[in-house]
Amino acid sequence: QFPGDHVMVLGSGVYRIGSSVEFDWCAVNCIRTLREMGRKTIMVNYNPETVSTDYDMCDRLYFDEISFETVMDIYTMESPSGIILSMGGQLPNNIAMDLHRQQAVILGTSPDSIDSAENRFKFSRLLDTLSINQPRWKELSTVEAALAFCEEAGYPCLIRPSYVLSGAAMNVALNKHELENFLSQATAVSKDYPVVISKFILEAKEIDVDAVARDGEVVCMAVSEHVENAGVHSGDATLVTPPQDLNEETLAKIKSICCAIGRALEVTGPFNIQLIAKDNHLKVIECNARVSRSFPFVSKALDYDFIATATKVIMGEPVEAVDVIAGCGKVAVKVPVFSFSRLHGADVLLGVEMASTGEVACFGEDRYEAYLKAQLSTGFQIPKKNILISIGSFKHKNELIPTMQTLEKLGYQLFASMGTADFYNEHNFKVKSVDWPYEDTEDEHCRNGEQRTI
């Protein structure tokens, strides 16, 4: 029997870097809210690790792949009142336009608006029409045009494919050779959609905005600051909410930008915006008309269920607009967990493509307490005696001087790679230099029994 009045929710599919339990939390909360509203639910997902595929979670469960053909077959058979795409991360968004072309009823933000946000070229053009600042950009048409743009705008430049999750094939090119190499990767990943090249801004702060809107009008909003500078993927970054370093003027600008983009895309449901701030200027990097991996974090940190609100909005229920940016008197910090030690040859340097395999969030009276709790929860141990330091640029070495003074006062024995040790010894620190070759030398007798590589 197929009664035809169910609401169909698409899950996030397999767990992998960039798409994990955060999206399942959103899908589960969506289903629970629908059931509380008295609606019958259909869940489509194919990951036995998820809670959304528990037999008692929904009224009808389809344990099948989330592809256009499969979803359309289920839709035709079940004749549901509509499909909710925005709770399952990137995978459901990727088939939004295909479902729309087959006249499937999409609940929430329209597929045309989803495409306007996901398609890098359309979104960059939209920001230009709204007079909202963004890094200088150009759509990739030919390699020659890309090279000319990068020469004119200046390196580094960021290559950004459309319709990808966790920064797949997104890269920062520092020179012509890297640009040509990364362009071939990006066009392979994003064959049917444009690849955009934009100027990569160094030493900028990144800000995440998670919001829910109804017919383009924002109902609730959360703002999270990144501890790391822009250029580290938001899934790998340390997030702090409520924001601690943003003044009222900057927050007002962020709200204004968020409301303008929400209206332009006529968002109904959840959406996420990423911005960068430098010298008190804000620029928008991207927008996704779906939940982001930080929705569960902000919902718990601010003690307000963004997913329940988004579900009610999508289903046309009345919802009062609330201001929850300031939180509930506590600071929450989310830190990433990495598996580099288990992956032989893994590159431990973070970049615009996501690498973390988990995360921990903790509350504190202030951000320092919350950050320390979160780090200790990941298995990090506070050093007892020795600390090895290796810092890249002259600017970063300078910035660390006050911290070095604190470490010396605490009685730590400091070690450093050759260049870093030279710098700090010149600044009257007692730092022991360590020969730190990139690879182990196989010649044992040359070492005199000492381990040279740390």
TrEMBL record:
Reaction catalyzed: hydrogencarbonate + NH4(+) + 2 ATP = carbamoyl phosphate + 2 ADP + phosphate + 2 H(+)
ATP-grasp domain mapped to chain residues: 124-315
An MF annotation (GO) of this entry: aspartate carbamoyltransferase activity
Keyword Protein transport attached: no
Pfam families noted in UniProt: CPSase_L_D1 (PF25596), CPSase_L_D2 (PF02786), MGS (PF02142)
GO biological process terms, semicolon-separated: 'de novo' pyrimidine nucleobase biosynthetic process; citrulline biosynthetic process; glutamine metabolic process; UTP biosynthetic process
Nucleotide-binding listed as a keyword: yes
Domain MGS-like: 380-454
Keywords: ATP-binding, Ligase, Nucleotide-binding, Repeat
EC annotation from Swiss-Prot or TrEMBL: 6.3.4.16
Gene Ontology cellular-component annotations: cytosol
Signal peptide coordinates: none
Domain of life per record: Eukaryota
Class of enzymatic activity (EC top level): ligase
Name of the protein described by the UniProt record: carbamoyl-phosphate synthase (ammonia)
Source species of the chain: Arion vulgaris
Gene: ORF48644
